[in-house]
Recover the amino acids of this structure.
């Protein structure tokens, strides 16, 4: 068994060697500013445009619909605030989103609420799914934007994006999706799925941190977010992070090659892990069992607290994540787990394992063994577990 | 994020378990907030001769429980009542700010167990043990 088993790929992924190899020349030989006319600058420009092509191909978009940003959070901020400001020009001040969005979306809409916007936060069902009919019913003549995440970062639930997109298209409302967890893991087609804006982040699929992109469908009106130079077709100022962009391009190209085959293989590993961990008594799977990201496992174990579990897993060389309050810096458990109806005490005892194709069968077996051992140990010293056992 | 001492008491907690026919049992915390501490005391002639605990909670909750039991084991009731959350904190070389409430909970657990000891003897614990909270004193949203 190698020393560290990394199963927190939804948090971030290591940069792939092929990606790093493409990036390195951008720091030295091709260091030039892409806005210049001499060789090193022209080469940098060419490389940036190749990357833009890769992103467009991965999404089924046009090249001039892809805009590079500094991260997924910036893409979300730009999409939401940019469309909201345009909406306001036409007296539209209503936004629809969901209760299980990433904070990059939720804190942005909360900010807009303070500035006169009205926001509808749609409920999800017990598997974390949004009912497209709820979107339809929430749309008013004041609605300027619907923002629904493609797949959830904690519980892995994949939303009915195509249906939501169709409703928005019919109602002439702009549709944004935060696809940070989905891009590079499951196939996406912005045209077929009626997506107007899509956020993505390179470090979630083998690219570098500090680079993201926003897809903006041609014709969608959006106010600029970063003001300054004429970069990104005058829509997003700031000298391009050329190495990051080249890394994003290479990473998305690799991730989206044979994506269906890879995602099928990964889902098999995921299902084995879920199947084995659910053998632990008083455990439950969070998120939809089928409409689920291929690498996502999220399970709650009653009677234990998530941070303790993570600390023991770390001692066993396993990197994982939890929806427990204690790992988030606040004292409340994850808003996503609460939104799917988990009681606080069960939400505190949740574990997220996010796999990549690098994870071997041996690693999965070892993680199953360790989780079982640690849950048993923590339960043996838990007064809450005592009560649960007495009740059942 | 945690000191070596915290990690030591978390990974090898002292005095874990229960005491049959304990002279005093105290339970504090709330499952909604993610921590419950239950402390068992054996008391002989005013001396805490044995102490055990069970805790549901984060690394800090387990470590503070363990340290609190160590600080009162073999001590007189008077000495045990003087163990404050600060004493637990110092003995653990500190905790991250968001975890300070765990040390408060440990102090409350000692007080709750001693109060139970007096109640079992038919003595009003309030003048001896003083006021203490069984909940999490607003550290989380359960009381909101």
């Amino acid at each position: 068994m190698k020393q560290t088993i990394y199963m927190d790929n939804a948090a971030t992924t290591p940069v792939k060697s092929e990606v790093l190899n493409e990036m390195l020349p951008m720091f030295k030989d091709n260091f030039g500013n892409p806005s210049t006319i001499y060789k090193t600058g022209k080469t940098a420009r060419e490389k940036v445009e190749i990357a833009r092509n890769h992103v467009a191909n991965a999404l089924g978009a046009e090249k001039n619909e892809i805009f590079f940003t500094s991260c997924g959070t910036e893409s979300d901020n730009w999409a939401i605030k940019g469309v909201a400001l345009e909406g306001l020009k036409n007296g539209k001040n209503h936004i629809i989103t969901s209760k299980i969005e990433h904070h990059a979306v939720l804190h942005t809409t909360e900010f807009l609420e303070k500035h006169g916007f009205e926001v509808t936060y749609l409920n999800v069902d017990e598997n974390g799914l949004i009912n497209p009919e709820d979107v339809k019913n929430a749309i008013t003549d004041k609605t300027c934007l619907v923002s629904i995440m493609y797949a959830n970062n904690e519980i892995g639930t994949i939303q009915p994006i195509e249906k939501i997109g169709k409703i928005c298209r019919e109602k002439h409302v702009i549709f944004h999706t935060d696809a940070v967890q989905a891009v590079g893991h499951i196939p996406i087609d912005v045209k077929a799925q009626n997506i107007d804006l899509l956020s993505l982040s390179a470090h979630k699929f083998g690219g570098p941190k500090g680079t993201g992109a926003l897809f903006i469908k041609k014709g969608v009106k959006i106010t600029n977010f970063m003001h300054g130079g004429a970069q990104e077709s005058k829509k997003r100022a700031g000298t391009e992070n050329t190495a990051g962009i080249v890394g994003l391009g290479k990473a998305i190209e690799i991730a989206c090659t044979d994506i269906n085959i890879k995602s099928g293989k990964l889902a098999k590993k995921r299902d084995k892990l879920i199947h084995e961990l659910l053998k632990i008594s008083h455990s439950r799977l969070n998120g939809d069992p089928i409409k689920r990201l291929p690498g996502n496992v999220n399970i709650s174990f009653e009677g234990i607290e998530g941070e303790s579990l993570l600390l023991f897993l770390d001692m066993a060389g396993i990197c994982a994540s939890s929806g427990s309050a204690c790992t988030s810096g606040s004292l409340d458990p994850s808003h996503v787990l609460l939104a799917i109806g988990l009681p606080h005490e069960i939400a505190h005892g949740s574990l997220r394992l996010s796999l990549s194709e690098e994870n071997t069968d041996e690693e999965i077996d070892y993680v199953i063994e360790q989780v079982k051992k640690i849950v048993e140990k923590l339960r043996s010293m838990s007064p809450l577990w005592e009560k649960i056992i007495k009740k059942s | 994020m945690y000191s070596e001492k915290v990690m030591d008491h978390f990974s090898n907690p002292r005095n874990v378990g229960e005491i049959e026919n304990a002279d005093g049992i105290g339970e504090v915390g709330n499952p909604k907030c993610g921590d419950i501490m239950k402390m068992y005391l054996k008391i002989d002639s005013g001396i805490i001769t044995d102490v055990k605990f069970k805790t549901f909670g984060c690394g800090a909750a387990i470590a503070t429980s363990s340290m609190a039991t160590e600080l009162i084991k073999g001590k007189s009731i008077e000495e045990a009542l003087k163990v404050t959350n600060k004493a637990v904190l110092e003995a653990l070389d500190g905790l991250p700010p968001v975890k300070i409430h765990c040390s408060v909970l440990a102090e409350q657990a000692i007080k709750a167990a001693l109060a139970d000891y007096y109640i079992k003897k038919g003595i009003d614990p309030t003048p001896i043990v003083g006021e203490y909270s069984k909940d999490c004193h607003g550290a989380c949203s359960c009381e909101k």
Summary: The first helix of chain B runs from residue 4 to 11. Chain B has one domain: 4-135. The radius of gyration of chain B is 14 Å. Chain B has a mean pLDDT of 92.
